[in-house]
Amino acid sequence: MTSDSVNWEAVRADFPILHQEVRGNPLIYFDSAASSQKPRQVIDALTRYYEHDNANVHRGLHELSSRATDAFEAARNKVAKFLNAASADEIIFTRGTTEGINLVAQAYGTRYVKEGDAILLTEMEHHSNLVPWQLLAERTGASLRFVPVLEDGTLDLSKLPELLTPEVKIFSFTHISNSLGTVNPVADLCRAARAVGAISVVDAAQSAGHLPVDVQALGCDFLALSGHKMCAPTGIGALYGRAEVLEKTPPYHGGGEMIVSVSLHKSTYKEAPHRFEAGTPNIAGAVGLGAAVDYLESIGRQNIAAHDGELVRYAQQRMEADVPGIRIIGPRDRSGLVGFVMESAHPHDLTTYADRYGLALRGGHHCNQPLMKKFKLPGTSRASFYFYNTKEEIDRMITILQEAARFFS
Amino acid sequence: MIPNSDLEELYQQVLLDHSRRPRNFGELSEADATEAGEKVVKVQGDNPSCGDEIVVSVKLADTGLKLADIKFTGQGCAISQASASLMTIKTKGRSRAEVEELIAAFHDLITKQTENPPDILGDLQLLQGVWRFPQRVKCATLAWRALEQALREGSASVVTTEVEG
Fold it and tell me: How many contacts (CB atoms, under 8 Å) link A and B?
């Protein structure tokens, strides 16, 4: 697969923030796994919305309210198409992946998970796909189980039969590991969950903006994503829930927007997705997410995945060949990020050093404390790429890492 | 690449040497308090945003008025390790009042530009470069917060407030 059909230089020009100097050096932004940058098209969509259409949704009988409602629901349709959901009613707007997972744990989990049941996770989960389940287990008396991670950074699937038993009610796992770059076999895992009557929950924070994600092909029951990691603003995300599962899920938050009728002692609730969206939603955020989806679709996620892949392979090869004392953590076959440790420098010292030369890396435990403990690492440094990055930037990173290795040894 | 003067100031060779070969590395135990009026206190300091961990153990003498001995263990970045190492050297054998004066002077040194640092700081001035790196202040203060807590004779762990996402 090649990504030659896209004019990547023109694409990069869409991102105003990338064209600046940091401390006298050209900015190299290699922290997109933490948060991506935003193209002018998304920024313009926000401005347009606030300058022309802003009002509350689903309640006003005036022109602006209709426009805002239309824009909000149009964004829902775009996200549904983007994920190939069967219906836009299967898309709930959230603040991000963390809220999406908490919604499933609290609304679905509290109703359907009982004492003696089990929740299956993996050892590579981000804290946001771990702590909500710890809270649920504490509340319900259910137990937590974990699919182990092998030395090479992939899941030990040989253990799945003994872990994924009929006591398991929920199997929640990440599509792509945010620190290892591992891409998990989501469709296989969802099928295995369904075979024992468990629902599957996919953390798509690192995947949704990077490769084609088709919820029907994956066969998942829930899938959570964050807008800000895929060119949309912060504070907006989406949760896909399969219609059949959403129908039997009780409300999450109570408030306006989610009710049919309210008396002092009892209320009746709307159907999904509105049942899960209490209060005035992040309308502008949703509009921004819709614009981001349009933008990503105009490039094509196959092309984005191919471009990410070229960058990460090039980075891996150059780091191993040209930087002394570097060890790369995770599988050879990885998504567009590379976690590594440098013998002579702690990840935080290396990140501070890189920052002085305009290179934005992430250093630390990446909200993966149990995984770092398992690999006996104090943390790692991480370079994460997106389609607006270039091989020239990787070359500059290599020079900075070489200098750092010399500086700290 | 052009050498960066802020980095050169922050990571001086002496500081890197302290981080690689920390002094007074180890732990004290109850058995080390042999005289009347002596007490061993241990405090663990954690930096949840970066995973740095340090255990500072002190032997207080004269019913808490003197810091008779101090050691630390732990792992973390060059700044946190060097700061802990230098702290043990500068505080060992000092009176409580002097240690408290050091703590305050050190805090000022790494959080704001200081023209004439007080003499009491001595080698701790190696860490002066930290003030240009606000995100690293919590690395430099981790061991010191544990020491402060030990002086209060508490035993709970010290947790710095910043939390990384």
Answer: 56
Task: Give the closest-approach CA distance of A394 to chain B in angstroms.
Answer: 15
Q: What is the CATH number of the domain that holds A80?
A: 3.40.640.10
Confidence class for position B161, pLDDT limits 50, 70, 90: very low
Sequence-separated (6 or more) residues with CB below 8 Å from residue A234:
A35, A96, A227, A228, A285
What does pLDDT average to over chain A? Answer: 96
* Nearest-neighbour CA in chain A from B148: distance (Å): 25
Task: Tell me what pLDDT residue A364 has.
Answer: 85
pLDDT of the residue at B159? 46
CB within 8 Å of A206: residues ≥ 6 apart: A33, A174, A175, A176, A177, A178, A229, A335, A337
**ipTM above threshold 0.90:** no
A131 touches B at CB < 8 Å: no
* Residue carrying the six token digits 């369904």: A194
Q: Are residues A265 and A352 in the same domain?
A: no
Tokens, residue A251 = 């409300």
Verify that A219 and A267 share a domain, yes or no. yes
> A309 and A167, same structural domain?
no
Q: Give A204's pLDDT tier (boundaries 50, 70, 90).
A: very high
The pLDDT of residue A259: 85
Catalytic site positions of A: 367
The pLDDT confidence band at residue B127, using thresholds 50, 70 and 90, is: very high
What are the percentages of helix, strand and coil residues in chain A, rounded to 5?
45, 20, 35
What are the tens digits of pLDDT across the range A327-336?
999 999 999 9
pLDDT for position A2: 54
The closest CB to that of B77, out of A349, A356, A403, belongs to A349
Mark which residues 43-62 of B lie under 8 Å from A by CB.
49-52
Between chains, do B7 and A367 touch, taking CB under 8 Å as contact? Answer: no
> For residue A349, which residues of chain B lie inside 8 Å, CB to CB?
11, 77-79
The nearest CA of chain A is from the CA of B42 a distance in Å of 22
Pick A357's closest partner by Cβ from B1, B52, B79: B1
Residue A36 lies in a domain: no
* Domain residue limits at A344: 8-30+300-408
What is the C-alpha radius of gyration for chain B, rounded to an integer number of angstroms? 16
